[in-house]
Design brief:
The protein has about 140 residues and is mostly helical. The protein has a single domain, classed as rbstp2171 (2-Layer Sandwich). It has helices at about 5-10, 40-65, 80-85, 110-125, 130-140; strands at about 15-20, 30-35, 90. Helix 3 packs across helix 4. It is extended, with a radius of gyration of 20 Å.
Length: about 140
């Protein structure tokens, strides 16, 4: 028998999270990776879209004759993997630990640690599955 959630139960539901051991950062330590909310995912995707648009605007400006160029600055590359981690690492209360301005800090971390955390982000957000595959897997359960 299935229990239907009430409005209050839906509004008080916590986002799924997973503690991920990160031995590269010390013995017995972990980080908490939380599934993105609808708003968080929208912000994440919008930031990616903005960066892609900035790159297109720069490229379009570069194709113009020199005298017609508007001087659109070349945007910095955006590491969407680190951006996903920033949107997913939380403390015990579910508050994010980092902001986009912190991205350069990740360059000093162990690549294995970053990969381990990123893989958890991909898994908890089901980024490795299409919506069709998710629906099919739920039908089998």
């Amino acid at each position: 028998m299935v229990t239907l959630l009430s409005r209050s139960a839906l509004l008080s539901a916590k986002l799924p999270h997973r503690d991920v051991a990160v031995p590269e950062m010390g013995d017995g330590v972990a980080v908490r990776v939380q599934q993105m909310s609808v708003n968080t995912r929208a912000s994440y995707l919008e930031r990616i879209r903005q960066n892609q648009q900035a790159h297109l605007d720069y490229e379009d400006d570069q194709y113009l004759p020199v005298e017609d160029q508007k001087g659109v600055p070349k945007p910095a590359d955006l590491d969407i993997g680190i951006l996903a981690i920033i949107h997913s690492l939380v403390d015990e209360d579910g508050k994010t630990l980092f902001v986009e301005a912190d991205m350069p800090l990740f360059s000093t971390w162990s690549q294995n640690a970053v990969t381990r955390i990123y893989e958890a982000v991909i898994e908890i957000n089901n980024y490795d599955k299409s919506m069709g595959k998710l629906v099919e897997s739920e039908k089998k359960d």
